[in-house]
Amino acid sequence: MSNAIPAGYKPQTSETLPDYLAIKLPAAIKLGGTPDQWQVTEVGDGNLNMVFIVKGLAKTIVVKQALPWLRAGGEGWPLSLTRAGFEYNALCHEAQFAGHKLVPEVYFYDQEMALFAMEYLTPHVILRKELIAGKKFTNLAYDVGTFIARTLFHTSDIGMPADKKKALTAKFALNHELCKITEDLIFTEPYYPAERNNWTSPQLDADVKKVWNDTQMIQVAMRYKFKFMTEAQALLHGDLHSGSIMVTQSDTKIIDPEFGFMGPMAFDIGNYIGNLLLAFFSRPGWDATAQACEEYQHWLIGQMEETWSVFVTHFRQLWNQKTQGEAWPVEIYQQCPDNDLAHDAREIAQDQFFETLFEDTLVNAGMEMNRRIIGFAGVADFKLIDDADLRAQCERRALAMARELIVNASLFENISSVGQFVLKGKYEY
Amino acid sequence: MSNAIPAGYKPQTSETLPDYLAIKLPAAIKLGGTPDQWQVTEVGDGNLNMVFIVKGLAKTIVVKQALPWLRAGGEGWPLSLTRAGFEYNALCHEAQFAGHKLVPEVYFYDQEMALFAMEYLTPHVILRKELIAGKKFTNLAYDVGTFIARTLFHTSDIGMPADKKKALTAKFALNHELCKITEDLIFTEPYYPAERNNWTSPQLDADVKKVWNDTQMIQVAMRYKFKFMTEAQALLHGDLHSGSIMVTQSDTKIIDPEFGFMGPMAFDIGNYIGNLLLAFFSRPGWDATAQACEEYQHWLIGQMEETWSVFVTHFRQLWNQKTQGEAWPVEIYQQCPDNDLAHDAREIAQDQFFETLFEDTLVNAGMEMNRRIIGFAGVADFKLIDDADLRAQCERRALAMARELIVNASLFENISSVGQFVLKGKYEY
Prior knowledge:
Two copies of one chain form a homodimer.
Chain A: H1 17-24, E1 39-42, E2 49-55, E3 60-66, H2 83-98, E4 106-110, E5 115-119, E6 125-126, H3 127-132, H4 140-154, H5 162-173, H6 176-185, H7 205-212, H8 215-230, E7 234-236, E8 245-247, E9 252-254, E10 261-263, H9 265-282, H10 290-320, H11 330-333, H12 339-374, H13 380-383, H14 388-407, H15 415-424
Antiparallel strand pairs in A: 1-2, 2-3, 3-5, 4-5, 6-8, 7-10, 8-9
Helix pairs in contact in A: 2-4, 4-10, 9-10, 9-12, 9-14, 10-15, 12-14
């Protein structure tokens, strides 16, 4: 995949798309009616792409096309079209391991046009919107926890043969442009006076300055930047926040893995947990009463705890049943003459693995919180709170918690301790 | 690069090589005389390749060709030819960063023939041979320490731009077959009754069984296997033992990087230190007197300490001068408004980095020692000791030290503590 714009590439519009699809859409996907009867709406609200909903008489699909620049940044921030291919490939791998219950189906991919067509999700709504609205979802923690467990396990050296895993590493190492966005926006810019930073000013000015002078936190942040750049543990979604999840009361779909690459497992889990905590701290801006706020905050903490525990349970189960994957290999842990010893040893190995992963997850959660408050790309949970003083108050508490997670990650015994700590609110920054 | 044998591939022999070279050798490399006057000797004593010395009237060169199987394993252990390309590429990168003072020059590479021609090193001798003979080399520690520092620094995210580093990761992730040899022979087989294991029997039978039941050590070994498989920190040599180094009294050349890939820095350093320690423990099999033994052992410990300290000093210096490389970025550590703070912070970041690296290095050294005594590929330092009882005695002490390094790595304060511990010999297994 080259960074040059392919000769046949042209940005689609609502007008050009039907004729293009009439030629390109696989015969099995029948929209119904003729192209002039298809209604096209451009709905992209993300930063990187054009997203069209194409409604035929019988069926509706979504078409996503990469633009040769970062959309939010305008033409001044060029970005190669290859990311459509990485997203397409990541969606395929995720579907292979987590299934279409959790991942939308892709109908076709056109490399030259940096475009793919996929399942239209209805009546799904972006999770972040629903969290802001204070809605609850019964299956959410189970679905997200199993998605993370399955995609990470099966693309790691624990669950995948070494040669296949290294082929994934090779393929996704080329997604360096999107990795760099993460490296810059999450792991670097919030920690110094970078131009693109964007916080609630002047209310948080002093707090942000404090971050820039917090050598202790910055040292941890930089160690985790290095880990992000070097630990090729599993195929990450790479952007697993509440804006990359669509939900109904009974269904959960994980979308938008264009940041997919082989990285540290803790990044995906930490990203999601960080966003649950951002939602938590934004509640005073959204709930009408203190009681409603407290009640929903408890639900969010429950989500954090359940997602982690579903993840661990599911990952451990896959590990116990594994027949391949050369890390913690079956020769040593499953086929040892003394089976009880092997069983104990495996459990201890897993405990050690999850202990490290837990600490790394907390740090990554804190990093996500910091960057959403200080860095370039904020979250609606805070940004849409109109009262800037109230917003800053919420954000200040989130920053304080983020610091705890980054600097004192090793002091939290388990996910419940984190939940209790957040609920007790005993942190100052 | 594909795993299939290219149509034009054919194993060269001493008879066919001159005619092949007459056509392929770049004009600038003038062997002198006519092809029928060139003397060809096959000298490969490694496991993986054919190595020819081609002596013309004016100049001598070395030609190395990969065979489609692992040489020591015979045709029953197939191995793809692509490794010649990885070795060629690794040699080029190493020369770029460490210079031709430390890395042999390559004249040309023929992908189809899985062959390259390179500088003939004379009067260089393989370091392992010289260590067995009890020879000392003034520049060795400095040369090896700077080689490791330069190649690792400049191919890591600390010293190389992120996109270029990820391109290296992508390229070398495809060297999975040689990685698997390491994963199997170093990180797995010594820790269970694998068929290929090969130890001094029956003398060490009980010791080896102890290793297989040493759950505590095996857990650490498996964590480091995972690190080896996932930590894409820098372009490793991948096989940096005393058999991959050629020396004269004044010159050091690092050869044979066919195991090159993006892995944990501690692996290369640990490998080399592990081999110095193997040499240390083999001395009773080689030295005529206790005094000679002690004296040479002290020299070896000095080599270990100096190599590490040269490495750290040199790596730190490169880091202090860095202008690129997005880990521990200059924006935060060099261009901060308060320069003194930035300087202190950088030093602390480096201290933390080297602390982790040191612990990981010791574990990797221990892993190398174990595998050379228990696993498939032994070392001449021990194997050539004819008296099996004496050999086993040496090996037993090496195993005990290896266990200390693996299980108690974090207890060693610095490299001198390791040296003192080895010299005091207070370890039992």
